[in-house]
What does this fold into?
Amino acid sequence: MSRILNAASVAAVGMTAATMLLLAEPGFANDLGVDANRPAIALPSANPVAGEPATQPPADIEASVEKIIADANADTNDAEPVIQPLTAESLAALVAVTPRPATLDPELRCLAGAVYFESRGESLPGQLAVAHVVINRAQSGRFPASLCGVVYQRSQFSFIRGGKMPRIREGKQWDNAIAIAQIAQDGSWKNHAPGALFFHARHVSPGWRKTRIAQIDNHIFYR
It folds into this structure.
């Protein structure tokens, strides 16, 4: 279910952005080479044609008008909500109100783990872009078809050591990573690095001959 919030329904939540990750050389995804229209309301003329008697509105005209307006409002309320333009504040608000599942299925845990270890020190848009790289890879046909397959693929993500994910410390950063993973899976918010399959931290220069898409915080994204 998409998590779409109107600007009037959420409070802006402050956020911070750190520029360095906490693990040794994280942030490296290697190259494999490979308004609704309301109905018109007809009312009796207040200025009848000269020579004609003025018509009186029916006794129930007020009730009729109110019903028409109520029906039009109901149609508008049932319409698809408008997605607000992405800003850091609105994404932070969405993260803050995204409920954490009682249990994490393996795919969500893998995706949230990648967000946590690769980008927990980045801004929320930066974390969202990292999550989308994992999802894009799984959907590309060039990488394993599952999120866990992408995350655990050998020699791809530097935080995977000996085929295992390091221990995750419970807290706000992990909660944020889980929320970002859910938002990325839902596709509810704009990704600022669309189509990216690769990224690396700014302090490394792999010399890839790929199309650069964006730089977000400490990461550079490519396809």
